[in-house]
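@channel sequence for tomorrow's demo:
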Amino acid sequence: MNERQKRILSGPILPTLLGLSGPTIVVLLVQTGVGVAETYFVSNLGTDALAGVALVFPALMLMQMMSNGGIGGGVSSAVARALGGGRRNDADSLVWHAIVSGAAFGAVFTAAEWLGGRWLFHIMGGNGDVLAAALGYGNVVFAGSILIWLTSLLAAALRGAGNVLVPAAVTLTGAIIVIPLSPALIFGWGPLPRMGVAGAGTAVICYYVVATATLLLYLRSRNSPLKLRIAAIEWRLLRDILKVGGLSSLSTVQINLTVAIVTGMVGRVGTDAVAGYGIASRLDYLLIPLGFGIGTGALTMVGINVGAGNFERARRIGWIAGLFGAGVMEAIGVAAATAPHAWLGMFTSDPNVLATGTLYFHIVAPFYGLIGLGMLLYFAGQGAGQVFWPVIAGTARLAIAGVGGWIIVARLGLGLPTLFVAVACAAVAYGGGTAVALLLGPWRAAPSPAPIAKAERVSA
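structure tokens (generated this afternoon):
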């Protein structure tokens, strides 16, 4: 066991958590900044282009969240518990299982967007030039779905082993690639063609080509804490990933389905409204890299401690991470509610677009802390292999904001203020419900995979 893993098992909790979380948080904030920059570049193409990309964003975030925090969480959890329990060979084998899983899930997402993207973006409010922009961006970026999944799952495996620096460095490299390449392809700088919104998607895919190759090479090197070896696929190891990753993926589906439904309801009001909501909800997604950075650190710490049988320490780690993350995110929410134009004004000066974004921030942003609490306890639950109740809390969030939002707008015609109140109430249910579940149901040992059985092996 290396020194990092020893600190996880017996060192001070918050400093160790911040040491694991810090590099991931910094580079993911940089990556979020890249997304903000991309939004700014696209905004120069007009409101239709901005609204079109906003329609694609929930589907793209679904894939990224499922690959990082859903199935990726299952990979990290399985690797961490294997190392905590002294099962080094299983931890190495899980890397190849992650690659096979990523290729399969990526292919499904590519096919789904190519076949159903037009229908999805249309029912979310896209028509005419807005729909054309959505398809121009979505068809390109989803062509690289397999690369996105492979990058996410390989990085998740390394984080599960306590190595956060290499995934962080890869993400930082992506920012260096995308920031100049995106506007160059959007506007056609120099010899490059003017691709419009498709250029933004092409720049993203270029990054994932480099990221996937880099992670594969590192995992084959002597410096990696895990070793990539091509081997037979074992159901027991896939099951260890999917028993956490499957439910966790359902949680990411719930979150993004909620956003998609709310976006569609806002889209009924008009293009300016969906553009304003799209800009405001970009700040919502700033919570994701913060929560993901702290959460993956908590996941690794909880997983290794659960694998070693230190259940009470694992529980303390979960609470410390949850409360710390909630405080950070609440500070962001208060700032957004107090000075909404500091964010919105970076992207537009249209008074109608600003009005929708400001309304959203005034009503929803003060509840960001509860979203953060639920998110961090969810990641801690992944590490323990216990995600059932966080998923139930996510179901409540979907029911209140998604289903309730549809009823409010489509059936009752009550308008945006009432819709955004429902979104705020959903945040309360999500954070509060997850916290109550942890209070009432302390973690117990998650079963380890059974010994290898030849009958359960499937040829790779």
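heads up for whoever presents: Residues 452-460 have pLDDT under 50 and may be disordered.
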